[in-house]
Amino acid sequence: MTSRVRLLLSSMMFLQFFVWGAWFTTLGTVLTAQDMSGVIGEAYGAVPLAAIIAPLFLGLIADRFFNCEKTMGILHLIGGALLFAGPSLIANKQGDTLSYIILANMLCYMPTLGLSNTVAFTNIKDRNDFPALRVWGTIGWIVAGLVVGGLGMSSSPKIFIMAGAAGVLLGLLCFALPKTPPPSRDKPISIGTLFMVDALKLMTSIPFAVFIICSMLVCIPLAYYYAYTAVYLPQIGFQATASTMALGQISEIFFMLLVPFFFRKLGVKVMILIGMLGWVARYALFAMGAPDQVVWMILAGVILHGVCYDFFFVTGFMYTDNKAPKEVRGQAP
Question: In this predicted model, what pLDDT tens digit does every residue of 103-152 receive, in sequence order?
C-alpha cells in the first residue's frame, strides 16, 4: 500500500465517522434545548430503521453495478446536503419532518459503513493492517465531539451544518479513492440475489449466527445510550457533553491499535467473548450508577467503550470479511 493510498483511506475513515459523530452524539441535547424532547425517540429510531432498509437495496447495487468509491461519493453528497436542512426544521419545530430527513440521510449513510470497509479491505494486503486505518475513524469521531463541545455547540442546531459540510467534503474525497470495482459485476441477477439469500446463507454457520444474534442484543441498549446519555450527563454536572462522551472513543484508539496483537494471540472467538463481557460490564455500570448518579460508574461505563467496541465490532468486521464471499460483502449482515 503506497503512502498516497494510505493517506486517502485514512482520510476516508476520519471523515466517515466525523460526519456521524458531529450530530449523532448530542442530537438529544439539541432537541431538549429546543423543547422538542418528544422527537428524540423518533429521530434516533430512524437510524436502526435505515440500517435495516438500506442494505436490502443499496448492498445489491454496490456489489454489482457501480464502483464502491463512486457509490460512496454519491451517497455522501446526497446525505450531506440533506443535513443542511436540520437547523431550519428545528427552528420551525418541524420534528416529524426532521425525523424523515434523518431517515433519508441514514439511508444514504448506512451503506457507506460497509462500503468503506470494502474499499479498505480491497486495498490492503494484510487484514491486520485494517485497525491502523480504522483507528482514524475513531479519531474523527473524537475530533467531532471535541469541536462540538469546544465551540459550545452541544445544544445548537448548527451541528447539522458542520456535519453536512463534512459529508459533502467526504463525498468529493471518495471520487479520489482507489478504484474498487463491484465484486459481482457482469454476474446475472437472480431472485435469491434480490432477497439477499446468498448473504443470509452465512447465518447457516452456527458461530456466525451466534455473533449476529449477540450483535443485535448488544445494539438494543446501545441505541438508548446514544439517544439519552447526552441528555442525562448535564443533569449530573457534566457541561461539555460531547467531549465527555468522546472519552469512550479515546479508549477505543488504545484498544484498536492492540487488535492485531490480540488477534494473533487470542483468536477471533476469545476476542469477541471478551468484547461481549465488556458490554455486560458496561451496561451493569450504567444500570447501577445512573439511578443514584454515581459519577465514577458513569465515567467507567463511558470509558469501557474502547474494549467493548474494538473487541466485539472491529473484530467482527474482520471476521465477517473473512467469512463472507466477496460477491456479497456489501449485503453481509
Answer: 999 999 998 988 898 899 888 887 778 888 988 998 999 899 889 888 88
Q: Check whether 59 has a pLDDT greater than 60.
A: no
Across residues 49-63, what is the average pLDDT? 72
- Using alpha carbons, select from 89, 239, 77 the residue that is nearest to residue 169: 77
pLDDT given at position 315: 84
The pLDDT score that the predictor gives to residue 245 is 80
Q: Which cell goes with 61? A: 447495487
Going along the chain from its start, the domains and CATH numbers come out as 3-181+189-328 (1.20.1250.20)
Q: What are the contacts of 324-329 at 24+ separation with CB within 8 A?
A: 324/199, 324/202, 325/198, 326/183, 327/63, 327/183, 327/184, 327/187, 327/198, 328/59, 328/63, 328/184, 328/196, 328/198, 328/199, 329/63, 329/114, 329/117, 329/118, 329/183
Q: How far is CA 16 from CA 45, 107, 188, 226, in A?
A: 21, 15, 32, 18
